[in-house]
Amino acid sequence: MHYDRNSQQIDAGDHIILLSEVIDLNKAEKNPLLYYNRNIGPIPGNWPNK
Predict the structure, then answer these.
(1) Which of 14, 20, 44, 47 could disulfide-link 7, Cβ–Cβ 3.0 to 4.6 Å?
(2) 0.70 exceeded by pTM
(3) Is 13 in a helix, a strand, or coil?
(4) Rounded CA separation 16/7 (Å)
(5) Closest by Cα among 17, 23, 20, 18 to 2
């Protein structure tokens, strides 16, 4: 993914929010991942109902 070099930084307390325009994108035919509880893995089949 490529971003426009003219991004905007917004101070948000202990975070910085970056706003930018996507100028190019490649899509892969892969299953999505889920970030939860500081872990990254496949989305469970019964999610979100656990």
Answers:
(1) 20
(2) no
(3) coil
(4) 12
(5) 23
Note whether 43 and 33 are within 8 A (CB).
yes
Task: For residue 7, give the DSSP letter.
Answer: -
From residue 1, give the alpha-carbon distance in Å to each of 5, 21, 25, 33, 41.
12, 11, 5, 17, 21
With tokens 């202990």, the residue in question is 14
- CA–CA distance, 24 with 4 (Å, rounded to integer): 9
* Cα 13 to Cα 46: distance, rounded to the nearest angstrom: 36
Instruction: For residues 13 and 24, give the distance between their C-alpha atoms in angstroms, rounded to a whole number.
Output: 30
Amino acid letter at 24? D
